[in-house]
Amino acid sequence: MVVRDPHCRHNVYWSEIVRESLAEYVCATDTLESMGYEIKAVVVDGKRGLTGHYADLPVQMCHFHQAATVRRYLTLRPRLEAGRELRDVARKLGNVCERCFGRELAHWHEKWCEFLTEKTINAETGKCHYTHKRLRSAYFSLKKNLLHLYTYQRHPDLRIPNTTNGLESSFAYLKELVRVHRGMKDDLKRKMIESILQNSNTKS
Question: What mean pLDDT, rounded, does the chain reach?
Fold first, then answer.
């Protein structure tokens, strides 16, 4: 787990963890503040609970992760017309202002709201479920995160990135090194990663 200062391009905190959890983020925040860091804003990838934990700070949802979420639900080539139209709306994220994006999303929902509520009855169990579950998930992901998709525009003085790409690119470099040195013993591998994170003043 790594926390990066996007302006200095430094990794300011890292920790080897078993699994990603809210408690690990709490620990990271507390540790950084105890070291004298002032956290002015955060860019998150959409993990559940993070926006609530950082409710007192400007929170920016990563556009790359939001687009990936929509793509995962709709696929690259949606079969349904509603899916294709929602995909086109999502593609405008970052290219239009917050008001315009919100208006287009609202117009899409107004057009397809009845379609979203369609249900199918399971012939075996007699239970019903939403017919277009993946389409609903894509829409509600955008709607839920809308408040945090344009934080960077509402706080221009903070120069908040709208993606975590700077951090992701450093991870890609680490993953490639680990792949190349896959025969290395775990303790040496940890030391290599620790050294790279320690000397993280890069241009990425």
Answer: 90
Hey, what amino acid is at 80? L
Whether the Cβ atoms of residue 89 and residue 107 lie closer than 8 Å to each other: no
Residue 24 to residue 29: CA distance in whole angstroms: 9
Query: Using CB atoms within 10 A of its CB, is residue 71 exposed (0-12), middle (13-18) or buried (19+)?
Result: middle
pLDDT tens digits, residue range 95-111? 999 999 999 999 999 99
Sign of CA dihedral 34, 38, 40, 44: negative
95 contacts 111 by C-beta, under 8 angstroms: no
Place of tokens 């030391």: 191
Helix, strand, coil in percent for the chain, rounding step 5: 55, 10, 35
Contact 135, 82 (CB under 8 A): yes
Print burial letters for 176-203: b (CB count within 10 Å at least 16), e (below 16).
eeeeeeeeeeeeeeeeeeeeebeebeee
pLDDT tens digit string along 110-124? 999 999 999 999 888
